[in-house]
Specification:
Layout lengths: L1 H15 L40 H28 L2 H12 L1 H7 L4 E2 L11 E6 L4 E9 L4 E9 L8 E9 L4 E3 L6
Antiparallel strand pairs: 1-3, 2-3, 3-4, 4-5, 5-6
Protein name: Cytochrome oxidase complex assembly protein 1-domain-containing protein
Keywords: Membrane, Transmembrane, Transmembrane helix
Pfam families: Coa1
């Protein structure tokens, strides 16, 4: 009796241990499903045009043009910033500020002319390539009397040889040409 009672408790505990019970499957159908038969063809639907597929290439082309233009603007800005922060540009600017002949033509307080589209930074044209041995710069310079354009060109003929300055001059807006003393560079 005690053995059969413990088996009965064991079965109930196992049965109660499950969280859900699966429903039993429905009994098989006793009658066949209802099938409706038609004597004529079905009523045809009215003909209508298929919708036009939206063309995606104009949007892709526009985004590509905007992307390439944005990359070009960023590349131009980044290379200009690199030229401005180079030691060559700083030395050329320092030498131009110290030149007496240039101060007589352009006035005191010589500084690079800022551009509005570069967020107040000057635009430096040309290339600075120290590893290959050539520097070619031009930028606008402004003073208290007027403005002008600085042209600086320097090359290194061989590795290990100092740079040779080929051109260091300022052409003022009134046409005056000032050759800057390049011995201080």
């Amino acid at each position: 009796m005690a053995l059969s009672l413990s088996r009965a408790c064991f079965r109930t505990r196992l049965h109660r241990a499950f969280a859900t019970n699966f429903p039993r499957p429905p009994p098989p159908p006793t009658e066949p499903p209802h099938v409706e038969m038609f004597s004529d063809t079905s009523r045809p639907r009215p003909f209508r045009e298929l919708p036009r597929i939206k063309r995606r290439w104009p949007a892709i082309l526009a985004l590509s043009v905007v992307g390439v233009a944005a990359w070009g603007v960023f590349y131009s800005y980044a290379t200009n910033q690199q030229k401005i922060s180079s030691s060559v540009f700083k030395q050329v600017l320092r030498t131009a500020r110290e030149d007496e002949g240039l101060r007589n033509v352009l006035g005191e307080a010589l500084r690079p002319q800022p551009e509005w589209w570069l967020n107040g930074e000057p635009r430096v044209l040309g290339a600075i390539n120290i590893l290959q041995g050539h520097v070619d710069l031009s930028f606008r310079l402004r003073g208290s009397k007027g403005s002008g354009t600085v042209y600086f060109t320097s090359v290194r003929r061989e590795k290990g040889v100092p740079y040779e300055i080929l051109r260091f001059k300022v052409i003022a807006d009134d046409g005056t040409v000032v050759n800057v003393d390049s011995s201080k560079v």
